[in-house]
Amino acid sequence: MEQIQATPVKRLCKIHNTITVNGQFPGPTLEVNNGDTLVINVVNRARYNVTIHWHGIKQIRTAWADGPEFITQCPIRPGGSYTYRFTIQGQEGTLWWHAHSSWLRATVYGALIIYPKEGEFYPFSKPKRETPILLGEWWDANPIDVVRQATRTGAAPKVSDAYTINGQPGDLYRCSSKDTTVVIVDSGETNLLRVINAALNQALFFAVANHKLTVVAADASYVQPFTTSVLMLGPGQTTDVLIDGNQPPGRYYIAVRAYASAQGPFDNTTSTAILEYNDTPCSVQGININPIFPSLPAFNDTATATTFSTSFRSPRQVDVPTEIDENLFFTVGLGLNNCPRGSSSTSCQGPNGTRFTASMNNMSFVLPPNFSILQAHHQGIPGVYSTDFPAVPPVKFDYTGNVSRSLWQPVRGTKVYKLKYGARVQVVLQGTSIVTGENHPIHLHGYDFYIIAEGFGNFNPQTDTAKFNLVDPPTRNTASVPVNGWSVIRFVANNPGVWLMHCHLDVHITWGLAMSFLVENGVSELESLEEPPVDLPVC
């Protein structure tokens, strides 16, 4: 059972009444095997609506358990409960779970580790020790108040005050060093770190002093192993790395700081944890010897981020769809709405008296208030959504150039794009420079996809198709679309339901950087959505 409740949590010298699961921050780690069926009863004892999303779980035919509020379910009201039931089918590795309602996932999150089936093994030798490493973001405030104030004013929300590693900011923040996370590794052994970026709004660089990291998986899909001294994870992404205890026994800093690709303010602090060898001499364990610090890239080091993200390959040849039924082109980026007539200037505190917004293909996504889209689809309730989400931008322009101000104001609406069961889909995700370019972590619910190419500038279908990797592209559930650049993904729409695709920077989903695919049922029962559970919350 997961109980959502307010719990006193002290960070940065101050106690906050923090929303947690079972009083734990971060929340409990779920450890399961491939093939397991999970039954998780979520009871809401907090004062906010809540839902839980099982990030990266494919939810084959069980879209009702996916969790995004007003997409696949109405929220669990204060005092209410809902039981999530789903089976893990053909997935293993590191995923995570988090609230999918307002900004609750700032503190409501935890690791979801899927071990191989009984009798099956990792494609690398079994590590001596495994440790989940959850990277988070902490506000010295109530995160719900932070987003509500931003929505009220139209300005960008206040940036966070700290990053955290397994819930702790570390030695470089006030009142924090006595609780710094310590990660034990075995000397002379190989250890597995399961790194999860659970931060709300920030891509992060990650490094360990004097240690190389061998990447073996990402988003619960194995990759061709490669070695690096730094990781870059967008929010929502996971990366499994092997680390060898091959240095002199002692203590070494693990450090995390922002990869901030946008123009504008960001949390420029550094979170630390300590990698400690199990046979560290007692003298070193004392306070007197400071751990060694790793070198981290500069906050705007896009070259390092790109080198990392383009290193991923599947371990062997994969079955990439080559015939494409749906060739889609989606712009992703920010916008500014002019101050609505009759509004006071206090509600238009964005640049030059505007309000921040965001969109895909100039559509700024609005959650329906009274029904979830899946419910409306399943029960044939009219007026909740329309199926005319544009397959291409309504206006072609120089997406990453100097964009005319006439294109900065998107249209608000609740539109989905319909896919036939089994459709082979390609989506070009094209970043824009409107307001500012930024690396956007785009997450698709209900599916993994192949990232077949990425690049900078405007995608050119004449020349950039030559860069497509149709042999061994990586499988992901969240794609970091390069700053002022593009990514191309492919998947087969073989899971019926309504599936949100959105930027995993929560500030951007708040502003409308999202859309949904409606995947129709196939022919047989095994190609059709299950009936909704009896305890599905009502709005």
Automatic annotation (TrEMBL):
Segments forming domain Plastocyanin-like: 4-118, 130-278, 389-521
GO terms of molecular function: copper ion binding; hydroquinone:oxygen oxidoreductase activity
Cofactor: Cu cation
Note on cofactor: Binds 4 Cu cations per monomer.
Main location: secreted
Keywords: Apoplast, Copper, Glycoprotein, Lignin degradation, Metal-binding, Oxidoreductase, Repeat, Secreted
Record-linked CDD domains: CuRO_1_LCC_plant, CuRO_2_LCC_plant, CuRO_3_LCC_plant
Pfam families: Cu-oxidase, Cu-oxidase_2, Cu-oxidase_3
InterPro entries in the record: Cu-oxidase-like_N (IPR011707), Cu-oxidase_2nd (IPR001117), Cu-oxidase_C (IPR011706), Cu-oxidase_fam (IPR045087), Cu_oxidase_CS (IPR033138), Cu_oxidase_Cu_BS (IPR002355), Cupredoxin (IPR008972), CuRO_1_LCC (IPR034288)
GO biological-process terms attached to the record: lignin catabolic process
Cell location: Secreted, Extracellular space, Apoplast
Cellular component annotations (GO), alphabetically ordered: apoplast
Documented EC number(s): 1.10.3.2
EC primary class: oxidoreductase
Reactions catalysed, as given in the entry: 4 hydroquinone + O2 = 4 benzosemiquinone + 2 H2O
Function of the molecule: Lignin degradation and detoxification of lignin-derived products.
Family, similarity comment: Belongs to the multicopper oxidase family.
PANTHER family, alphabetized: LACCASE (PTHR11709:SF495), MULTI-COPPER OXIDASE (PTHR11709)
Protein's UniProt name: Laccase
Organism for this UniProt entry: Solanum verrucosum
